[in-house]
From TrEMBL:
InterPro entries: AA_ABC_transptr_permease_3TM, ArtM/GltK/GlnP/TcyL/YhdX-like, MetI-like, MetI-like_sf. Belongs to the binding-protein-dependent transport system permease family. HisMQ subfamily. The lineage of its organism: Bacteria, Pseudomonadati, Pseudomonadota, Gammaproteobacteria, Oceanospirillales. GO terms for biological process: amino acid transport. This is Amino acid ABC transporter permease. Its main location: membrane. Keywords: Amino-acid transport, Cell membrane, Membrane, Transmembrane, Transmembrane helix, Transport. Residues 17-205 form the ABC transmembrane type-1 domain. It comes from Vreelandella sedimenti. CDD domains: TM_PBP2.
Length: 221
């Protein structure tokens, strides 16, 4: 691994890393919004809503993410829905991980003690207000550690966007390696850049888990 190779390859890989970050942020936002909606639907007393959400979650979790990306990018255009590879990667990852986010949020909501909800009702709060002011703030706090883990998983799985020609970091590395045959240098740099992106997230998740673990112990003592 020569320094001249590193300085030549790194700017191209950093451009790919920027696209990787954009895909991760876009997919994380989409999965969060859709996941919260699915969680509320699954917990709804309306059977049609809970059944629809449950079916969607099971189907999405049962399909490989790469198949979902292929379907969105290659099949939807045949149905008249044109998406760029970048858009398809965000939607594909966002939809795929919304199923996992939904389970994170559902578990957080169900962890709220029934006594708190009854107390809120006793002072005249309506169901929507209870959800907004009592349940969701606590549920989101409980769901934060697994939410952080999901963010790390989305970051790593953003590399799958390379399969639909998105010029993110993995794709950039493939193109450089194919033209220079410097596989060791290129993929070592790619691995190090992924670590640079993921390690802060991992450390942040670990800190959240320790913090909320201490909070739970303090609340139970």
């Amino acid at each position: 691994m020569e320094f001249s190779d590193i300085t030549a390859f790194l700017p191209i890989l950093l451009k790919g890393a920027l696209i990787t970050v954009q895909i991760t942020i876009g997919a994380l936002l989409l999965s969060t919004l859709l996941g919260l909606l699915l969680a509320l639907m699954k917990l709804s007393p309306v059977r049609a809503l809970s059944l629809t959400a449950g079916t969607f979650i099971n189907v999405v979790r049962g399909l490989p993410i790469i198949v979902q990306l292929f379907y969105i990018y290659f099949v939807l255009p045949e149905l008249g829905i044109q998406l760029s590879a970048f858009q398809a990667s965000i939607i594909g990852l966002g939809v795929a991980y919304s199923a996992y986010q939904a389970e994170n949020f559902r578990a957080g909501i169900e962890a709220i003690e029934a006594g708190q909800i009854e107390a809120a009702r006793s002072i005249g709060m309506k169901s929507k207000l209870i959800m907004r002011r009592v349940v969701l703030p606590q549920a989101i706090r409980i769901a934060l550690p697994p939410y952080g883990n999901t963010a790390v998983m989305i970051l790593k799985d953003s590399s799958l966007a390379s399969t639909i020609t998105v010029a993110e970091m993995t794709r950039a590395g493939q193109l450089i390696a194919a033209s220079t045959f410097q596989n060791t240098t290129v993929y070592t740099l790619v691995a190090l850049l992924y670590l640079c992106l993921s390690l802060p997230l991992i450390f942040g998740v670990n800190r959240l888990e320790r913090y909320f673990g201490k909070s739970a112990k303090g609340g139970n003592s």
